[in-house]
Design brief:
The chain is an alpha/beta fold. It has two domains: 89-237, Invertase/pectin methylesterase inhibitor family protein (Butyryl-CoA Dehydrogenase, subunit A, domain 3); 253-595, Pectate Lyase C-like (3 Solenoid). The chain is globular, with a radius of gyration of 37 Å. 48% of the residues are buried. The model is unreliable at 1-26, 61-71 and 242-251 (pLDDT under 50).
Length: 598
């Protein structure tokens, strides 16, 4: 036997010289043993890790094998599914359905517990943020593109102005949504319609620019996104209870005017110049408070709660006048058509946008004008040259005239009423996207440039849910004195579709023999012919025969009484709610019962 004994804890006897070889072998064995003792635990841990990894990998591909995987019926999954289903229900009927669903599921945390006004408010607030962001980007374009033309710079400035108006209108909509939405339905629809119109107007400003694509590519997508969000908000608004039944879509008339014309304003309009109480007088001879209209307007209070009357004595005032947003309830009173004139000649050819070319611009709410001629004398060769642009909600023009050639009267947006007025022009001379009613007014075509046509209207409604359009009731459509001798040389039409859902109706009016038998003209091929809404109702005169009219899907040659009634002062612009105080007489409905409140 070897003298070596293996003791506990590897204790050894001192080896003798004769046993050195055995001792060395034993030492090597011990080292291997120690190594084995170290490796075995590490191997076990590695095997355990590999087993866990394999198990997790398997359960990742086969969730049903995992003890920790949430079941498909978990609360989170159910909530997400209900959220999507609710969004799909709310968005039914929206033109941009997918965008509507994605927006609601993203910005409204719990759709099932939110009222419809709350949902619409959330979408409108989201749109406000988008408008502000786009405004910032558009403002910076001038730094990115330093070599812009004067027209392009002005178009960018127009966009900034329009974005500010849009934010104001959308904020007003949010405020109205916090109240009784049914009572504010018409106001909400008007505000959203105007906000949408502003985006299109911004883009329109670049249509005559050589760099249109280069400039608009920076923000065209954003503007289209804003318009689509507002369109979806309009679609959601239609679902509010109490807005579609038992109540006129557009409102009521009273005293020959929309109800929104107050009784005190009606009295002002019915009094003579000498009987009117004025706050300020403008006279070129120095006999008044000021010699220019602009000075008087600057002196008017901001956000006035009462009517502020500026009497403008007879004379030709060569100035550009803007009734800005904060100048509300302003009234201009002149000495009559052709006596008090406000004149200018800005035009597109000379570097002005159509939006900015107007001689007079009215934006402040509840603006009224009586007995004034608004004129742009640029001439037919200068193309678009506006005499008056109105974006004033509840605005009234009584016994006024508007004189220009192309694009004479820009009824841009919101609710407007014209009574006993004269409009002179050539191409698209009443255009825009307001909800506007003309009563007892005259439309006269002038002699255009060679190869041009006379087109009385070009309405700009671009969404089927907008409450906008042009309504012409008890008016006269005829050739002006300068055209009559050469009438046979130029074709004349009632209107053409400027935008996809263009809407114009002519009711109980006189149509002269200058109108082509087709009645209406295409804008560009088949554009909008299926989506427009053009109608005629019991008109008279040699041009009123509808037997040879266009056969477009959207044209209605003979409206029935129910259809025609939707475009009266009472129904179309809620006349019974605001016209009563202006003093302007008006027809409430198709019965033509003249309302004159005193």
């Amino acid at each position: 036997m070897s003298p070596i004994r293996v003791l506990s804890h590897f204790a050894f006897t001192v080896p003798s010289t004769s046993t050195t070889m055995h001792t060395n072998l034993t030492s090597q064995t011990l080292k291997r043993h120690r190594l084995t003792m170290l490796v075995l635990p590490m191997s076990a841990l590695l095997l355990l890790a590999l087993s866990v990894f394999s198990f997790l990998t398997l359960t990742n591909h086969h969730p049903s094998l995992s003890l920790f995987t949430k079941r498909p019926t978990s609360h989170l999954h159910i909530h997400k599914r209900l959220q999507t289903q609710n969004a799909e229900l709310q968005c039914a009927g929206a033109l941009y359905h997918d965008l509507c669903i994605s927006t609601l599921t993203r910005i409204v945390p719990d759709l099932t517990s939110r009222s419809l006004p709350e949902i619409i408010s959330a979408t409108v607030n989201e749109t406000i943020s988008d408008v502000r962001s786009t405004d910032f980007n558009v403002t910076n374009i001038r730094r990115k593109l330093p070599h812009l033309t004067v027209l392009e710079i002005r178009a960018l400035e127009d966009c900034h102005t329009l974005f500010l108006e849009t934010v104001s209108q959308l904020k007003s909509a949010v405020s109205d949504l916090s109240k009784s939405s049914s009572d504010k339905y018409n106001d909400l629809r008007t505000l959203l319609s105007a906000a949408m119109t502003n985006q299109e107007t911004c883009l329109d400003g670049f249509s005559g620019s050589k760099s249109e694509v280069k400039i608009s590519r920076h923000f065209r997508k954003a503007l289209k996104g804003i318009s689509r969000q507002v369109s979806n908000s309009l679609a959601l608004l239609k679902k509010i209870n109490g807005t579609s039944k038992g109540k006129s879509e557009y409102g009521k008339m009273s005293g020959g005017f929309p109800q929104w014309v107050k009784r005190s304003d009606r009295r002002l309009l019915q009094t003579t110049v000498n009987e009117t109480a004025y706050n300020l007088v403008v006279a070129q001879d120095g006999s008044g408070n000021f010699t220019t209209i602009g000075e008087a307007l600057n002196a008017a209070p901001n956000s006035s709660a009462t009517r502020f009357v500026i009497y403008i004595k007879a004379g030709a005032y060569y100035e550009y006048v803007e009734v800005i947003n904060k100048k509300s309830k302003v009234m201009f009173v002149g000495d009559g058509i052709g006596k008090t004139l406000i004149k200018g000649n800005r035009n597109v050819v000379d570097g002005w946008t159509t939006f900015r070319s107007a001689t007079v611009i009215a934006v402040g709410a509840n603006f009224i004008a009586k007995g004034i001629t608004f004129e742009n004398y640029a001439g037919p060769s200068k193309h678009q040259a506006v005499a008056l642009r109105s974006g004033s909600d509840f605005s009234v023009f009584y016994q006024c005239s508007f004189v220009a050639y192309q694009d004479t009267l820009y009824v841009h947006s919101l609710r407007q009423f014209y009574r006993e007025c004269d409009v002179y022009g050539t191409v698209d001379f009443v255009f825009g996207n307001a909800a506007v009613v003309f009563q007892k007014s005259n439309f006269y075509a002038r002699q255009p440039d060679p190869k041009q046509k006379n087109i009385f209207t070009a309405q700009g409604r671009d969404d089927p849910n907008q409450n906008t359009g042009i309504s012409i009731l008890e008016c006269k459509i005829a050739a002006g004195s300068e055209l009559i001798p050469n009438q046979s040389m130029f074709k004349s039409y009632l209107g053409r579709p400027w935008k996809e859902y263009s809407r114009t109706v002519i009711l109980r009016s006189y149509i002269g023999d200058l109108i082509d038998p087709a009645g209406w003209l295409e804008w560009d091929g088949n554009f909008a012919l299926s989506t427009l809404y053009y109608g005629e109702y019991t008109n008279r005169g040699p041009g009123s025969n509808t037997s040879a009219r266009v056969t477009w899907p959207g044209y209605k040659p003979i409206l029935n009484t129910t259809e025609a009634s939707q475009f009266t002062v009472g129904n179309f612009i809620q006349g019974g709610e605001w016209l009563n105080d202006t003093g302007v007489p008006y027809y409430l409905d198709l019965q033509q019962n003249l309302t004159v409140l005193i």
